[in-house]
Amino acid sequence: MAYSDLHEFIGKLEEKALIKRIKSETDAELEITEIADRVVKSGGPALLFERVKNSKFPLLINTFGSYERLNLALGVKNIEEAAVKIGDFIDAANYAGFIKTVKAVPSLIQLTSVFPLKLPTKGKCQQIIDYSPDLGKLPILKCWPGDGGRFITLPVVITKDPETGIQNMGMYRMQVYDAQTTGMHWHLHKDGRSIYDKCRNTGGIMPVSVAIGCDPVVIYSATAPLPQYIDEILFAGFLRKKPVALVKSITNDIYVPANADFILEGYVDTKEDLRMEGPFGDHTGYYSLADMYPVFHLTCMTYREDAVYPATVVGKPPMEDCYLGKATEKLFLPLLRIQFPEIIDMNFPLEGVFHNCVIVSIKKRFPGHAKKVMNSIWGSGQMMYTKMIVVVDESVNPHDLSTVAWKVFNNIDGRRDIVLSDGPLDALDHASDQRHYGCRLGIDATVKLPEEGYSRTWPDEITMSEDIKTLVTRRWKEYGF
Fold this sequence. Notes:
CATH architecture of the largest domain: Roll
Largest sheet: 9 strands, antiparallel
CATH class of the largest domain: Mainly Beta
Distance between the termini: 44 Å
GO cellular component, one term: cytosol
Domain 3-octaprenyl-4-hydroxybenzoate carboxy-lyase-like N-terminal: 11-80
Domain 3-octaprenyl-4-hydroxybenzoate carboxy-lyase-like Rift-related: 122-317
Number of strands: 25
Number of domains: 2
GO biological process, one term: ubiquinone biosynthetic process
Radius of gyration: 24 Å
Oligomer: single chain
Number of helices: 13
Pfam families: UbiD (PF01977), UbiD_C (PF20696), UbiD_N (PF20695)
């Protein structure tokens, strides 16, 4: 099912009793975070706060905070439905040859039907136009006591490459400095930062539009680790099986989702000095340190007459963003398999907050195969940030953490099976002595081959004979169980 907007999705959540309306007045400073944190960790519903102190707009949170709601948001019975088609989509959408490739592959012609629709009229997101905008009107959260201020936590930030004219859509937190300026948290390795650097090289003003309150698939697509040449709006259309309607911003040449709740229009002056942003209670469970980032200037705010402000809170896992990370894990496994067919399955444990740990099961065929996979993963896009890679044999389910731990604790020799690799790290990593760079760890927990220097006979695992298991199964009730 393709939702036309966030409101239609809220209606679906209400229909299935997966959302709770909070009618008591609540404070966007800390109070809502504490409520949401307790609810998500107890497996509770999405929350719609109808009366937020000092704002007329309702606030929606914990929207994606369960597998059931995540599946509903993406319009699938389970994530694997969409995952099996992702590889075809990425392959078809390569570079500028997209149309040519699609026409050459009849099974992919349907993808041409999900190109975004640029409407010639105003959208619902522009029902109200405010040329004297004030961010103080929005119920923007201060999430944690040590935060540097209030942060917009679910913004879809849209920019345009000055060289190619191609738009980019990403999700970058925005610290509110005052009524009309915020930080723009573009990490060193992010596409938004790359576009900023291009604009800075030409000394220009960089137009930016920020959509808040898009339909759930567009929100997810802004977080997806797509190859640089893939348009996130096109990807969203593919996932929802229906094009995303776009309209031109009122004051700049950027197209935005027509049915979004809010659009923040403005610019980043690439000649302006960077400004201190943070600290921020982050998805690692620690505060990310304050640092210098570009400044976004708000010049116009448009919004729907029935606008709802969506937000999320990150912190010690499990939190709502963990479920979005699990969607990425499932959706992009087929893409990883296309590049590395020996990979059987993978798991990003919630405690690893996505970048810190991945467990991979492989069909091992030759000496050093596990180490080859480690280095391949570190060479794959945003997977370069992965601090720890654990490789197990195909017989091991990487989602069974107890079995994985058993294999790691028993199958490794420290000198032979530990790989230390210097390389890029996520900007939020606090453990490395240097920013953006440090040491990553690989653990080969596979059965060792003689060619890998193992001179003894690898022992068999203890298993019961099949005839005895069958006998006991047949007599189980007879034993009194």
